[in-house]
Amino acid sequence: MKRNSYSLRLGVLAIAGLCACDLVHAAEPTPTSSNCTVDADSMAASPVALDSYDLHLDYEMTLEVLATIDKDGKVKDTSITRSSRNRLVDRAAMTAAKRWRYHCQATPGTALLTVRIPAPRCKLDMDSWRDHRPVYPEQLRREHARGSVELNLRPGGSANGSADVSLKASSGYTDADNAVLDAARKWRFTCNAPSAPTQTAFTTEQFNFSDRPSQEDLEKSARAERAKRKTPPFNSDLKTTVRDALPMEYAHAKQFFESVPKRNDVELSKDQQDTPGLAVYTTSLKEVMRQILASDQLEQPNVTTWLMFMPPHPWAPSVVRTRSETITDEASGQRRPIERVNYVCDSSPANCAQIESRIRHMVEPVSATH
């Protein structure tokens, strides 16, 4: 392996200036003018309530709702002008806005509301979640099974921090359902107040063994492949950058800020830039060496890089992830590097559009060989 394969792992992103230090930022949209105000007492008496929330949601959110008031002073309609990027949260805010009373200078009119959604009372302990992942039986691998298990979790009722766990939707595989249920019962929560009886966390655990043979089959296949043919030549000139079809590990940037630095296979990159608010984490050198020693065909190890944009960076909070690996090009028969890019953006719509635009100009059309 050549040294520059690893040291230049930031590659296209760093060269493309993804830190946005010299960007001219687009202006934020001008809020809709309004001539009505919400009645504070009615707002306090009927706060926004989340009956259910995503398991990994652990922070408060702020969004803006536009309420349209008819000539009789009643709420005709509500809409989101600044989204929380969470469908259930947006819906809960619009539903609450319809219950509130308003004072208008004249009707019909509008009221532009800033709505704060508090964090769930009970937050998932991510260490317990990482330590207790579902352990699926080998039989599912032999059957090439795939599916998803949907769970409901009601934390707050146990002194040890566990939750009441129930199956919301089965995968169709009893063994897979039980593996997920067993893992979820070991997850722990921290609660700042007794959980409301109707507040339930939900999550979906997916598994896919349709293209994953058993470990024994993998080893047999690898030995047979090495025995019957030589390793294809490696050509770094064929490197491409594509949009990553693999979902991001977490739904929100803050979850990356808290979790990625704690992983034992990740380290702060030596290619760290001096841009305020930008932190670059990458696959550790120890993990890279493990890959190299485990394979006799690996010109370039699999390296993942997370570019974390935190305050005071203008794109905060957001995360861009790149995964660099080696594939065999079907057209040329050569092995070549490929970089896959994905991101999550919790910043303003204008900033997220800038990130999307930068990535769109970097990636190439995805072909069947990707």
Automatic annotation (TrEMBL):
<feature type="region of interest" description="Disordered">
    <location>
        <begin position="207"/>
        <end position="238"/>
    </location>
</feature>
<feature type="domain" description="TonB C-terminal">
    <location>
        <begin position="35"/>
        <end position="131"/>
    </location>
</feature>
<dbReference type="InterPro" id="IPR037682">
    <property type="entry name" value="TonB_C"/>
</dbReference>
<dbReference type="GO" id="GO:0016020">
    <property type="term" value="C:membrane"/>
</dbReference>
<protein>
    <submittedName>
        <fullName>TonB family protein</fullName>
    </submittedName>
</protein>
<keyword id="KW-0812">Transmembrane</keyword>
<feature type="compositionally biased region" description="Basic and acidic residues">
    <location>
        <begin position="213"/>
        <end position="225"/>
    </location>
</feature>
<dbReference type="InterPro" id="IPR006260">
    <property type="entry name" value="TonB/TolA_C"/>
</dbReference>
<dbReference type="GO" id="GO:0055085">
    <property type="term" value="P:transmembrane transport"/>
</dbReference>
<keyword id="KW-0472">Membrane</keyword>
<dbReference type="Pfam" id="PF03544">
    <property type="entry name" value="TonB_C"/>
</dbReference>
<feature type="signal peptide">
    <location>
        <begin position="1"/>
        <end position="26"/>
    </location>
</feature>
<keyword id="KW-1133">Transmembrane helix</keyword>
<keyword id="KW-0732">Signal</keyword>
